[in-house]
Amino acid sequence: MADFSQSRVKPVTKAGSVCDLQRMPDEPAARGDARPARVVVIGGGFSGTLTAVNLVRLADDPLEITIVNERTPPARGVAYRRRRPEYLLNVAARNMSAFPDDPDHFLRWVSDRPEFEAVPQIDLRERFIPRQIYGDYLSWIAQKYLAKPSDGTHPVASRFVVGEAIDIEPQEFGCRVWLTDGTTLEADRVVLATGNETPASLPGAEGLAHHPAWIGDPWQAWEERLPPRDSSVVVLGTGLTAVDAIITLRAIGWMGSINAVSRHGWLPQAHFKGIEYPEFPPAGVDLTAIGLDALVALVKYHCAALHERNANPAIIVDKLRPYTQRIWASFSTEERLAFAKNHAARWNVFRHRISPDLHAQLTHLQLTGQLQVRAAGIEKLVESSDQIRVHLDDGTTLVGDVVLNATGPSSRLTASSSALLQNLLRRGLIHPDATDMGISVADDHTVLTANGDRSAWLLAMGPLIRGTYWETVAVPELRGQAKRVAETALDRVHSDEEEGPELLEYML
Taking the model in full, what pTM does it have? Predict the structure, then answer.
């Protein structure tokens, strides 16, 4: 397999250095045609890479694509960058194709891996593959589409720039992207694909940046900084990032205590084998028209019916998947905010499930008493010599030799720590949606300005538009968005006909 991260990307020493993926086309004048259109994609993870790949797949005319990302290697992003074998995908292999119009693409690729050649297809389809292998898959796709030389008949050129985009300045035609080192990139279209925000600030955390017990970024190699393995670890959060941290502690043979705390104290549920349940959605009921209160009542009724059959109520969550974005779009602003406040935590526990193997490991740690999960809010973090004291709103205090922030990404656009997003907000080039969960966009992912106008050159996707779509963080949603954004950037008409069928997460 070609190694995109090593064979094409040259070493860089400062932000803004350019890593050529292929030779750029000859000057337009030498070819006798117009200058190629220029698309800058800000973000080199799954969303940005697949947007660039779809631009290559769909482009009929000369095109120059530049992908700007703060880190190397390209394509892997935060989720797939770390090479830890205990990190597994949270979705079965059958649902992890990068292309909505080719649902078995990942299955075919992973079947050719030596470690899976002997695995029967019926088993491989339901397997939860290590995330580092999925990162290899994304790197392979990037190498295939973004690093191939132009053959003259399809003059699309791509390059990867290591740097941080800090501002975008409108020009008479198109715009100019500014990087932190002063480098600029001229663009006709810009795609914002920057992924999740950093975690929201916690009371007292502002003074802990250099404290030896504080791990503010759970995506760094924090396990290399751990004290003796009989010490205490406090994990702030109980979601998917917290699961990664706990599983890593188990993998390295951690012998000390682990306390995980969140407001609800709920760990993600496991994937499961489900049953046929044709009663939902009920015949004749338009889920997009009944409103939040009626929908909640309907879901509760059918969850109770499944309980009576000894079946998992998360079946209802999966069967809602084809309707979720349309339901969200039908909600009023008040209903969206009410759902986020009162129902989102429970929704996430059942919607964003983990592999049965990982869930079994968490259960084992709880049964042995090594892992304790608490339901409480975090009032304040206080430095205490080489430790950190975590004061909770139930009056108790946790003391950690290591305290790891796994509270999840910030969910307020106007509170973003991104200099780029703050500058775009200041310029009025982007505007918060009505819930302040993300950037306001039109149906085709074109950004809406502070005046409510369609931007002439700016598009957005992924977690940045959570307030518009709600479900916008998992591969099954992001792969469709990447294709849709590429179509918009190329002024192509969108069609859902090429997209594969929506697959249930649970196994029948």
Answer: 0.90
